[in-house]
């Protein structure tokens, strides 16, 4: 094997290993999601029978979901989506507000959700540190309030407009929520896809590492060729 290519292979492998280690030691965002059906609504564009989703993004400075606990101070973002509207509120980042609520999100040793907030809610005025984003909710009057407690409206404004879950309020039993999954998107409002699915992390460092591994393997393959294969 030619020394110059051998050195390139080893350099590439060591650099890739460094990226992989850095990626696994960085605190990670995870999300849990309830997908339900709209019960009653007097919000323009949202009607009874529509699917909706409420997503809670969590970060407790850990990198795994096994045997974890998240409380309301770990909520980073909440998304409320229907096929026609979207709402997003960033939380717990510097001066941003902390949601009200009680209980904890808990997972067992396998990462399965075994505990859930008894209640969690926050309001957003759209002014100062109480910011929010929306799609298709321009007719509502701030502040907008989202709530998960089994009885209150999912999303409501200050003028009496709201929509509820078909069960009355957002169900808070752990079995009604998805198992925590990695989250890499921004806290950005978007409509719910017709076929809702778990958020897929973007390429990020993991994808770049895979590309670098492929490059290393390519270099290694080249180095194994006979000398005459590279003649000009």
Could you please describe the fold and organization of this structure?
There is one protein chain. The protein contains two helices and 14 strands. It has 232 residues and is an alpha+beta fold. The protein is globular and about 45 Å long. The strands form two sheets. Strands 1, 2, 4, 5, 6, 9, 10, 11, 12, 13 and 14 form an eleven-stranded antiparallel β-sheet that branches. Strands 3-7-8 form a three-stranded antiparallel β-sheet, with no helix packed on it. Helices cover 19% and strands 28% of the residues. The chain has one domain. Helix 1 (3-25) packs antiparallel against helix 2 (204-223). Residues 12-25 and 196-232 have low confidence and may be disordered. A hairpin with a 4-residue loop joins strand 4 and strand 5 (86-90).
The tally of domains stands at: 1
Number of DSSP strands?
A: 14
Give the helices and strands as they follow along the chain. Answer: HEEEEEEEEEEEEEEH
The helix fraction, in percent, is 10-25%
Ends distance: 19 Å
Largest β-sheet summary: 11 strands, antiparallel
Shape: globular
Rg is 23 Å
Total helices: the number is 2
Q: Which structural category do the helix and sheet elements fall into?
A: alpha+beta
Keyword list:
single chain; 232 residues; three-stranded antiparallel β-sheet; globular; 19% helix; alpha+beta; eleven-stranded antiparallel β-sheet; 14 strands; 28% strand; disordered C terminus
